[in-house]
Amino acid sequence: MTVIQDPKRRGEWAEAQFLSRAASLGLTVCKPWGDSARFDFIVENSEGCCRIQVKSTTSLRENGRS
Asked: Which pTM does this prediction carry?
């Protein structure tokens, strides 16, 4: 598995993964314009809306690999 080292690119990858998963679950997903909002997405379902902040991280495994 390739680890994305650049934090900005890793964050963008994580957001793309979230968007894909949420859409596959039938949720309506909205992305705010720009990057100054306190959240990354607004997700809507039959019960209402919620704001989502996507986070990502890496960690070392026992063998020292990411």
From this structure: 0.79
* Arithmetic mean of pLDDT, 6-22: 94
Q: So where are the chain's domains?
A: 7-52
The pLDDT of residue 59 is: 76
DSSP for 9-50, please give it. Answer: HHHHHHHHHHHHHHHHTT-EEE--SSS-SS-SEEEEETTEEE
CA gap 6, 60 in Å, rounded: 16
3-state secondary structure (DSSP) of residue 37? coil
Q: What are φ and ψ of residue 50, in 5° steps?
A: -145, 150
